[in-house]
Design a protein that fits this description.
The chain is mostly helical. The chain is built from 3 helices and no strands. The termini are far apart.
């Protein structure tokens, strides 16, 4: 009996583990970016609040306090929008990287599965054509299901991105 199939299975398992750890690393990189960004924002907000508090304490009458408050509302709203936009960019970037990696892994799985079925067809003992045909049907159905799910996910991501 050929050891080609067990070797292929081991290689596929190793590839799957490498992909899993690669995706996990991408997720952690995104998390690190978010943490670094939030630390930067926190430092900036702290410094700005210190300056605002200093200005408020140096105000000599209530009208200066109201003027200070009025002058801060528009920049604060703009900063909130910019913050949300930057967080969205980080998350979208990580999502795109992970989606691309998952798509590549799915395509590799399809190629490996097709190779497995072809190997079965070439090396099947006589009288086992029905089993090989069943395997071929199973993988064809799995590929069709994967393609349908992939299209649905892409459509959902496109719709969700457009809504934002």
């Amino acid at each position: 009996m050929s050891t080609l199939i067990p070797q292929q299975w081991v290689a596929a398992q190793q590839s799957g583990l490498e992909s899993f750890f690669g995706l996990t690393n991408k997720a952690f990189e995104g998390f690190e970016k978010l943490v670094a960004f939030n630390l930067q924002v926190s430092k900036t907000v702290f410094a700005e609040n210190q300056e605002i508090l200093t200005q408020a304490l140096s105000a000599s009458n209530p009208s200066e306090l109201f003027a200070l408050q009025a002058s801060l509302s528009q920049p604060a709203a703009e900063k909130v929008v910019a913050y949300g936009r930057h967080v969205h960019e980080i998350v979208s970037g990580v999502q795109s990287e992970i989606s691309a990696a998952v798509a590549a892994q799915g395509q590799q799985f399809q190629r490996d599965a097709q190779g497995f079925v072809e190997h079965l067809q070439k090396n099947a003992p006589s009288g086992s054509q029905s089993a090989v045909t069943a395997w071929n049907s199973l993988f064809s159905a799995a590929n069709a299901t994967y393609e349908s799910a992939n299209k649905a996910v892409k459509q959902f991501v496109t719709t969700a991105s457009a809504a934002q």
